[in-house]
Design brief:
The chain is an all-alpha fold. The protein is 73% helix and 0% strand.
Length: 234
Amino acid sequence: TMKRTSLGQQLVIVSRLILWAATGRILLHDSVYLGGSASNNPEAWTFMQMLFTLGGGSLGLIIVGTLLNRLAARDTACSVAFSLALTILSTGMAIMLAGYIKGGVAAIPLSASLAGTTAAAFVLSRYCNDPTVSYLRGATSIGLVGLFGFVCIGHFFGQLTGPRAFALFLTPLLCWISELPGLRSMSSWQKSAIRLIAVSVSLGTVLYFARCDFEAKMAPLLAKATPGLAPIEC
């Protein structure tokens, strides 16, 4: 029985790594970026650009996913999953502020479903004495792939800037702040609060600058439509 369990866990890990490694290639399939030099498209990547972008994205997804799953295996898994749900929602808002409305709206159902799963797992752990790790580890992996997908879509098919995309994707790693010396010995709810505060501050900062860019672009249009409107300042 132990051998079967160990084999099953290894298959899950291998399948997860394969999915993470292939996510970038799947997202950009049949796009102008992967057309190659033969397509005569100025936006098509060279082989080295393709290798660097897809390889770097896959490596980043594997590293972030491994770190989040390791953290979610501890006693405060709900806060990790909920932080990921907040990040997905904020990424959708940033994509919409960057001008890609449909791409940003698509993040809302995934964020809501992940938040609902987290809430259900929290209830099970509190009132049914059922551990949340087994539920939330899978939910966290799915949510992370979704976050990576929205970041890629917003950047490559929208106008989400590179630094902003990186900041959004790496924000869930701020949950590790609770493992710093001096914070590690706190109770579970205190560590959860610290994680959510750190993630919320980062997301709020990203969305603030995204809103400033949006208003700067919209200011000339609003000035023409409403001549008496005061200029927008950020």
